[in-house]
Amino acid sequence: MRTPLIAGNWKMNGSTELVEAFGRTFSSAALPSSLEAAIFPPYPYLEAARRAFAETPLRLGAQTLNPLHSGAHTGEVSGRMLREFGVCYALVGHSERRQLYRESDEQVHDRLLAALGVDITPVLCVGETLEERDAGHTMQVVLRQVGYVMARLEPEQRERVIIAYEPVWAIGTGRTATPEQAQEVMAGIRDYQAGFDRDLAAALRLLYGGSMNAGNAAELLAQPDIDGGLVGGASLKVDDFLAICQSAG
Ligand code: PEP
């Protein structure tokens, strides 16, 4: 059985008030017992979130991390620091970081290794652009992104990685992949992993991301290879995020 995860990526949004609203709502919310749910707020809200979520099932994630522990890297934050704030997960290779900050597969790999090194579960984000999909290159692009990282890990490291398939054309656009489109790519990722190890592939947790909301989550999460969601816009509305979590049982 793969444990479902619903991860809310606030990006550069949110406020102390929103953190507190999540704390209040989730302290009394009934969630499916097997579900893991996490919020990935901007760094300045981590401490407030740690306190506000203490009596809730919500865990904490980071949106990125620097591969190094410390040093002369103005503006950067290391995994070791995030760990001190109770961070359990970190996104690596989100398409906004790949596109806006030119993060390469190699840098994504370094960040992922850094997360593993401090016992933070990395959520490796992969996905194709609309041009790549229209050109018929979806699987090639996705498997290059997955393969670059996974092929460089030891088997016991691979077991600790979560993969989020996020078609770039579906992120923040309101245009969701159909459950069939998402399932097809997820199955392809799982098959690829089976090439390393069948048991590992069967245990690999795969999330879908891209305009997931309270209305479409249940259908996406019902797909056999989709084990959870990475939610952007809808994770900024406490009732919507709760509804998504409740549909993941
Ligand atoms: C994301 O940022 O990872 C994401 C999936 O965003 P949205 O849900 O807004 O498309």
From TrEMBL:
It catalyses: D-glyceraldehyde 3-phosphate = dihydroxyacetone phosphate. Transmembrane segments: none annotated. Homodimer. This is Triosephosphate isomerase. Its EC number is 5.3.1.1. Its main location: cytoplasm. One of its GO terms (molecular function) is triose-phosphate isomerase activity. It is an enzyme of class 5 (isomerase). Keywords: Cytoplasm, Gluconeogenesis, Glycolysis, Isomerase.
